[in-house]
Each structure stands twice: as structure tokens, then as C-alpha cells.
Amino acid sequence: MAAMYSVSESLPFDTAQFDVVFARAVLHHMQDLETGCRELARVLKPGGLLLAVREHVISRAGDLPVFLQNHPLHRLYGGENAYLLNQYRRALDVAGLRIVQQLGSLESPINYFPQTPETLRSGLVGRVGLAPGISSVIASILSYEPIFGMTLNILSKIDTRPGRLYSFVCEKKL
Predict the structure, then answer these.
(1) Would the CA dihedral through 69, 71, 73, 74 be positive or negative?
(2) Which residues, at least 6 apart from 172, have a Cβ–Cβ distance to it below 8 Å?
(3) Would you say 35 and 5 are in contact if contact means Cβ atoms under 8 Å apart?
(4) What's the CA dihedral at 85, 90, 95, 101 to 10 degrees?
(5) CB neighbours of residue 160 within 10 Å
(6) Residue 67 φ/ψ, nearest 5 degrees
(7) Whose CB has fewer CB within 10 Å in the chain, the N or C terminal residue?
(8) How confident is the model at residue 7 (pLDDT cuts 50, 70, 90)?
(9) pLDDT tens, 47-83?
(10) DSSP class of residue 60?
(11) Structural contact between residues 153 and 107, judged by C-beta atoms closer than 8 angstroms
């Protein structure tokens, strides 16, 4: 039986045709991640960039059913999926793409939208659950951008929510 691929796993473009490929929420919909990444790399010129943004990540294979059950649209059309972070990284590498930057779930508004820095700050303060005086001190500390950014970077590293979003900036190897 022939393998079934999505459109992104068999692109109708010539090899080395594009300087940039922008793929928003594309990789996690691929049936065969490595084949799909190879196809994206194929259409890129050497040194070209792949911007793969808002890709669902899971921490363990057992997280996938939980993610799919909780995804608001999956039950309507059945098209969602998520991969382990190391599966994305391996597929991109095998395809001949070098990850220039990997953005975790809270490291960029691209990934945490529709949240905003303001809603994230207030959510963090609210989760602390301390007395109002201490909460206002925490809010004041988090209003300092370098501290807030460092906090989000740390939280992004320990975030294990099934389906959290990551983005990748990759360069096609020469």
C-alpha cells in the first residue's frame, strides 16, 4: 500500500526554489515528520530559512491522548497532532536543516499568543497566591522587563503542558 502524505509532505515546487519557507502550525500536522521536513528543505535554496512556528510539543508519548482530548478543535475535524521536542529536532537535522533558534512556549509572543505579557504577569502573580502585600511586591519585580523575560525563559524550560507551542528558525545547510 502506498504511503499517505499530506500536501506539505509532497510539495509541487522545484528543488531549491525559495529563500524562505514560512510554515505556521504545519509540522505537527505531518503524518511523516521526517519526510515532511526533507520536503521543506528540498524546496529551500542552500542557506535558505525555514520558519516553523507554533508547533505543538509533548513531553512524553503518553501526553498525546491528553492533548488531543483537550484540544478544542481536534474533536471537530481530527487533524491535530503533537511530537516530542527531540522528534522535531531530529527531523529537522536529518532533513539538512540547522536550528538557528528554538523558541520555547513562553519565550516569544508567537508561542504564547493569545496571552500577552500583561496577562502572563497577572497570571504569575495570581498563581503565587500570597498575601496581597507580597503579591504587589512580586508584581513590581515582574514589571522589570529583564526579570520578567528571565522568568518566562525559566518557566519555558520547565513547562510540560501537553501541546505547548514551540517555534524553530532553521537554515538549510550548505
Answers:
(1) negative
(2) 41, 44, 45, 46, 47, 48, 49, 50, 96, 97, 98
(3) yes
(4) 50
(5) 11
(6) -60, -50
(7) N
(8) low
(9) 999 999 999 999 999 999 999 999 988 888 878 899 9
(10) S
(11) yes
Enumerate residues 6+ apart whose C-beta is below 8 A from 152: 106, 107, 120
> Does the domain at residues 1-105+160-174 carry the CATH identifier 3.40.50.150?
yes
b/e map 134-143, b = 16+ CB within 10 Å: eeeebeeebe
Cβ atoms 88, 61 nearer than 8 A: no
Cite the residue boundaries of each domain of the chain with CATH code 3.40.50.150. 1-105+160-174
Question: What are the tens digits of pLDDT across the range 93-116?
Answer: 999 999 999 999 999 999 999 999
Q: How many helices (H) and strands (E) does the chain have?
A: 8, 5
What's this model's pTM, rounded to 2 decimal places? 0.89
Q: Is 54 within 8 Å of 22 (Cβ atoms)?
A: no
